[in-house]
Write a structure and sequence with these properties.
CATH topology of the largest domain: Spore Coat Polysaccharide Biosynthesis Protein SpsA, Chain A
Number of strands: 30
Radius of gyration: 25 Å
CATH architecture of the largest domain: Alpha-Beta Complex
Shape: globular
Number of domains: 3
Helix content: 10-25%
Largest sheet: 6 strands, antiparallel
Length: 479
């Protein structure tokens, strides 16, 4: 088979609310390390598991504006420079996202093959996964739109199902024409489906030529192509990012590629995938893929337990002591604790929605907030003062800015700090400090080779993050 240009398209726009409190809107699950021996995040694992495929090119990653620097930094950590990072102003499901990626791909290549991947999947057997992709290329070369169906191991109600025209045989990588898609079934219906070897779980992984998928979307939903083309015109390219025009994109239908194309096309092929696939959609799914002790427990963090079974206990910042528990999920972070029945862990999303409706900040934000230059964390707060721990990466530089309602004290804990206050520029070392009066232009940067850690003490009548006027910024945050 002739070597084919393959462009991975990694969809990374979700918020992963069912993995709260670890996953939140400010730092969702795809950017977290979950059951990784190497400490890699789900996004990084998604890219690395396909890196050995011949013909593979740098990925197109689709995410939202809020997470753009997290995506860029996590790719930099694994020495990957994405072809493009497309910034959706708001989610419009997979059909518009794939359309945008396909349009971008054919700008650079004539008719590349797109490998559509979610950024939050776990796949235990990488070799089998790659084998399935290579098999899928044969079908793509024959003008097929390929999706991968997961061989069911249980009557899951959290996944959609795909019905093929032929039964699949164990260990044989042979595709079959798609007959229909089934939405997430109830328990009784799921038990019936898995008895029939024509049914597989819908993985949401696709393989097809860019021009063919655009043709099929144009055939069945032409308005998607129209709005996506308009959304890519004359929009802003900022560093490694390309912003999608929000005024055009807002009119694009919110529809999955399954509904928009795969349920209607006569060119759909499903290939069986038996590679230890798991969609990390809930804490119960995390427990299922974890290596457990002889009592069925998975512990992470500082845990002391007695007489417990089939539990997932995770502590991020303090000791968890547990006695006499069964079938529970316990996840502790610095500002929240989740306790849930394993069988009801999907309902964590309802808790998050309730927190948002009540404007409780823990529903969306971590105490640790990530920025393109590093991160900061509030460690003490009152109405007129706040103490933060600021981490600045080597070479990182905050914007030249001023505040109208607060003054700041900076104390260097470790590393080197380059400080600009009005026209004065100086270096602070460990245990040295400075004061920035209210209304003064200032900038902090890290000229060293090690991370800079700094305590910031704010005082004033208003301490909100929107009290900032930027004059210069290295990351395109001045509009």
């Amino acid at each position: 088979m002739q070597l084919k240009t393959i462009i991975p398209v990694i969809l990374s726009g979700g918020f992963g609310t069912r993995l709260w409190p670890l996953s939140r809107q400010s730092y969702p699950k795809q950017f977290l390390s979950i059951n990784s021996k190497e400490g890699k995040t789900l996004l990084q694992e998604t890219q690395e598991r396909i890196s050995s495929i011949q013909g593979i090119k740098p990925p197109i990653i689709i995410c939202n504006e809020e997470h753009r620097f997290i995506v860029a930094e996590q790719m930099r950590e694994i020495n990957i420079k994405p072809s493009t990072i497309l910034l959706e102003p708001f989610g419009r499901s997979t059909a518009p996202a794939i359309s945008l990626a396909a349009l971008k791909a054919i700008e650079k290549y004539d008719d590349p093959c797109l490998l559509i991947l979610s950024s939050d999947h776990k796949i235990q057997n990488k070799n089998r996964f790659i084998e399935a992709i290579l098999s899928g290329l044969d079908y793509v070369s024959k003008g097929r739109l390929v999706t991968f169906g997961i061989i069911p191991t249980s009557p899951e109600t959290g996944y959609g199902y795909i019905k093929s025209s032929e039964q699949f045989q164990n260990g044989i990588l042979k595709g079959s024409t798609i007959k229909s898609f089934i939405e997430k079934p109830n328990k009784k219906r799921a038990e019936e489906l898995i008895k029939d070897k024509r049914y597989t779980w819908n993985s949401g992984i696709f393989l097809f030529n860019a021009r063919l998928i655009l043709e099929e979307i144009q055939k069945f939903n032409p308005e998607i192509i129209s709005f996506c083309k308009d959304s890519l015109k004359d929009n802003e390219i900022d560093l490694d990012f390309q912003r999608i025009n929000p005024d055009k994109f807002i009119n694009c239908p919110n529809i999955s590629v399954d509904v928009a194309v795969m349920e209607k096309t006569k060119k759909g092929t499903v290939l069986p995938l038996d590679a230890g696939w798991k969609d990390i959609g809930s804490w119960n799914s995390v427990w299922e893929i974890s290596k457990k002790d002889k009592y069925g427990n998975k512990f992470e963090g500082d845990i002391v337990a007695k007489d417990i079974s089939n539990c997932y206990l995770r502590g991020e910042s303090r000791l968890i002591a547990a006695i006499g528990l069964e079938n529970l999920i316990v996840v502790e972070t610095k500002d929240a604790v989740l306790i849930a029945d394993q069988k009801k862990s999907q309902k964590v999303k309802d808790i998050v929605n309730s927190l948002k409706n009540k404007n409780i900040i823990e529903g969306e934000e971590h105490k640790k907030i990530f920025r393109p230059w590093g991160s900061y964390e509030s460690i003490a707060l009152d109405s007129r003062w706040q103490v933060k721990l600021i981490n600045v990466n080597p070479g990182g530089k905050l914007s030249l800015q001023l505040h109208h309602h607060r003054s700041e004290h900076w104390v260097v804990v470790s590393g080197l700090a380059k400080v600009e206050i009005n026209k004065d520029v100086f270096i602070l070392e460990e245990n040295q400090s400075t004061y920035i009066p209210l209304g003064t232009k200032h900038r902090l940067s890290n000229p060293g080779k090690l991370p800079l850690k700094l305590i910031e003490i704010q005082s004033g009548e208003y301490l909100g993050e929107d009290d900032i006027e930027r004059f210069e910024d290295s990351y395109g945050r001045i509009k």
